[in-house]
Amino acid sequence: MPEPRIPERHAQLLEYAQGLNPPSGWKIEVSGDEVIMMAGPSVIHQRNLLVVREQFDAHRPRDLMPSENTDLASPHTGKLRNPDLTYIPFAVVELGGTEVPAEAAAIAVEIVSPSNPENDLVGKVRDYPLMGIPVYLLIDPRRGAVTLFSEPAGGRYRRQWTGVFGDLVPVPEPFGFELVTGELIRYPA
Q: Quick one: residue 45, left, alpha or beta (phi over 0 = left, psi -120 to 50 = alpha)?
């Protein structure tokens, strides 16, 4: 099956974004006609990410490595996203560079940003299935909510599990465990 062509404008935007050198602590993403630049996360964000990462690390398949703030590139969709946490095959290290093919990621984990929640709640829910990412775990400390998207097909996720902090999240294979969310904390009101 031939790889779909992306519009030239999107290809140019992706190339432009890849050439940017953001200040330390900032990250860049591309979605549609937008280049998105985001500031570094808060300590609550980092703590929640640690709670999640430690559990994933305990259930990590041996051929996958954790990677925080890695650029996942999807040239055929014209998208470049940078999840808070992903698990990628050790084999991608051999590719070198700073980007990983998005379809190689086993999961994308995001902690919702209080300054730009739409990026995680709308943009990434739209982009990740198009990029071939099989599982998207979305943690929202603003509301104390957790959503797990899985089974991408036809440009969207077919399955969605929703709960609140304190619930056990059924994480599918290749991890295959219940994520404990009782230690996650909310952002201050």
A: alpha
- Which is more confident, 53 or 16? 53
| Domain boundaries, given as residue ranges, for the chain | 42-180
In terms of CATH architecture, what is 42-180? Answer: Alpha-Beta Complex (3.90)
For residues 84 and 33, the answer to whether their CB atoms sit within 8 Å is no
User: Tell me: the pLDDT tens digits for 105-138?
Assistant: 999 999 998 888 888 899 999 999 999 999 999 9
Buried b / exposed e over 61-94, threshold 16 CB at 10 Å, is eeebbebeebbbbbbbbbbbbbbbbbbbbeebee
Task: Decide if 88 contacts 105 (C-beta within 8 A).
Answer: yes
| Predicted local distance difference test score (pLDDT) of residue 113 | 86
C-beta contacts of 149-157 below 8 A and 24+ residues apart: 149/125, 152/128, 153/129, 155/129, 155/130, 156/126, 156/129, 157/125, 157/128, 157/129
Q: What is the pLDDT of residue 116?
A: 82
Which residue, among 149, 9, 28, 135, has the nearest Cα to 81 in the 3D structure? 28
Q: Are strands 135-140 and 107-111 parallel, antiparallel or unpaired?
A: parallel
